[in-house]
Amino acid sequence: MSTNTLAIEHVSKRYGDVVALDDLSFEVRPGEIFGFVGSNGAGKTTTMRIALGVLSADSGQVLLGGRPVDLDVRRTIGYMPEERGLYPKMKVGDQLAYLAELHGLSRRDAAAAVARWTERLGIAERIGDAVDALSLGNQQRVQLAAALVHDPAVLVLDEPFSGLDPVAVDVMSEVLAEKAATGVPVVFSSHQLDLVQRLCDRVGIIAGGRMKAVGTVDELRGRGRPRLVVHAPEAPPGWADHLHGVRTVSHDDGHTVLELDDDAVDQDVLAAALKTGPVHEFSVNRPTLTELFREVVTA
User: Fold this and answer.
1) Do 12 and 58 form a contact (C-beta atoms < 8 A)?
2) Which of 17, 37, 78, 257 is 20 to 30 Å apart from 250, CA to CA?
3) Separation CA 13–CA 155 (nearest Å)
4) Pairing verdict, β 202-207 and 59-64
5) How many whole angstroms separate alpha carbon 53 and alpha carbon 51?
6) pLDDT by residue (tens digit) across 166-175?
7) What are phi and psi of 283, to 5 degrees?
8) Domains with residue ranges and CATH for the chain
9) Which pTM does this prediction carry?
10) pLDDT in tens, 211-255
11) Where do the coiled-coil regions begin and end (predicted)?
12) Is the dihedral of CA 75, 77, 78, 80 positive or negative?
């Protein structure tokens, strides 16, 4: 196992009769951005807290570079919780320096790291302000700085894009990509599946405490049935219903979306469309990650 791989191996967790995690396994590789998605209560936050050693698993283990997550390993992890975990009355700079020193940095190195990350995240001018004087978006930036200030070996982020404006989303996206480019494994949860689709090398979909699907975005989208988008302005409703393995998903003003079984022949669809008149568009469209997510979690 690579020195930086974060591995969740057969982890289970119960709260009384409630199964929070059920034999959950996945890994986040060096230099990889891994999107961890699921509905509320699916087990994402529980998984992250177990990965950090904040919660203990009933069974299974978490390894970073092949080592169990003990105190020394935990100090190398950068964690951003969904609920802001900052001291609201403490000044931004003092707080970040304090957290950096807790992770083992000298006072001098901590000050340099605070200056670097507050500048990079666009909050350098607020370094002397108390956290609770900041907007929610800037508090989120400070929370990310707290996860980065000690130059972590792995990043674990719980809903890091929540409450951010588009400019802040772009900044955070760039920072995560930059950290991954240095070989740091990055795992983050998010309900913003368009961002997950755009940013992540691989995605894991969790439902009911179990990992339902893992793969690259293209691999996951390829699991869904292909859809044909046909623009035939003169085609009447139901024009493709007689074709083998073809179902009409929608038909609106000559724009038809068709779902094809594996044994359907797309050229038969094209021939049928041409019989109705001109065809302005004929293209294959894979389901988006959002569409696939709905399919997976409701299966």
Assistant:
1) yes
2) 37
3) 22
4) unpaired
5) 6
6) 888 999 999 9
7) -140, 150
8) 6-221 (3.40.50.300), 224-297 (3.30.70)
9) 0.83
10) 999 999 888 887 767 789 999 999 999 999 999 999 999 999 889
11) none
12) negative
